[in-house]
Amino acid sequence: MITKTMTIHLQSGLEARPVALLVQIASQYESRIYVESGSKKINAKSIMGMMSLGLAAGEEITIIADGEDEQKAVSHIEEYLSERKAG
Question: What DSSP state is assigned to residue 85?
């Protein structure tokens, strides 16, 4: 299991389109992937769950991945969330 804290750098934060792209990225991997923000822990492959977080640019989240491809999954998500442009 890998746990990594990161900051959202997408200009628009995690609104509808960026959330959809994040869910698509997470869904490419076999690992179980969760996004934790405050007291909420949401399955990163759930679009409705991810939308419920309402995350903005500059917010800090923790990614939790557990499975065979966990390292690749976390790296890909971190790369996406580090983009300085809108999703």
Answer: S
